[in-house]
Prior knowledge:
Number of strands of chain A: 0
CATH topology of chain B: Glutaredoxin
Order of helices and strands of chain B: HEEEHEHEHEEH
Number of helices of chain A: 3
Low-confidence stretches of chain A: none
Mean pLDDT of chain B: 92
Helix content of chain B: 25-40%
Order of helices and strands of chain A: HHH
Largest interface: A-B, 19 and 24 residues
CATH architecture of chain B: 3-Layer(aba) Sandwich
Number of domains of chain B: 1
Oligomer: heterodimer
Helix content of chain A: 40-55%
CATH superfamily of chain B: Glutaredoxin
Distance between the termini of chain A: 71 Å
Strand order of the largest sheet of chain B: 2-1-5-4-3-6-7
Mean pLDDT of chain A: 70
Distance between the termini of chain B: 48 Å
Shape of chain B: globular
Largest sheet of chain A: none
Low-confidence stretches of chain B: none
Structural class of chain A: mainly alpha
Strand content of chain B: 15-25%
Strand content of chain A: under 5%
Amino acid sequence: MQYIFLVSLVLLTGCSDALVRVMPYEKEYFAQDKMSLSPLAQRAEQESHIFLIREASAGGDSSFQGGCGCR
Amino acid sequence: MKKIITMVLLTLSLSAEVTKGDNAVAFKLQTLDATTSYSMDDFKGEVVLVNLWASWCGGCKKEMPEFFTLQQEYKSGFKIVTVSIDKSSSSSQEFLESVEKELGYKRPFIALYDPSKSMPKAYGAKGMPSSYLIDKQGVVRDVIVGSLSHDDIAKLKIKIDKLK
């Protein structure tokens, strides 16, 4: 019984928040530009413009974009 | 049985975080330029705001000018102690110098450097930046996670005045 308790305790420790999660003060590398999904601001804007054209949706992302792609 | 209790305590201690009413974490850290070292005892009898920050953290950089003006307003009885957890102290130094240039005066607060990240670990910081308002007796009176806006600083001033 004691053995089972110890094993389950060790397993639970493995799931501990402090062990599994990247702590906020350890996110130095995540904060780098290259870690961003769209690291280039200009490219991100262009991609979003193309997305809106393709979707033929009304603007709402950032600026005056309609579905025509004729901005 | 003793072993079990020890393990339970260890498990619990992993998720420990400093909250209101807890004692402030004792430290001994050097300044960014490594010329002076400070410990928590140096601030006994003063209200202290310990701010954990890094130059890679956008929110930390955003609130930093607010600390310049806040410390300027309190000449005695209140100290701001910023603790950088950057990989190199030079990046923190560079950023603070850029703020000094922008505002036109030297930083009025104490800027410490914690390369081993011992402070955020001991405080169990849940976000970056994190600030801890500590009273004259060394008890944590407020925990602020996230960037402080101009309005937040105004609210903070009321708390500081009460504690002074």
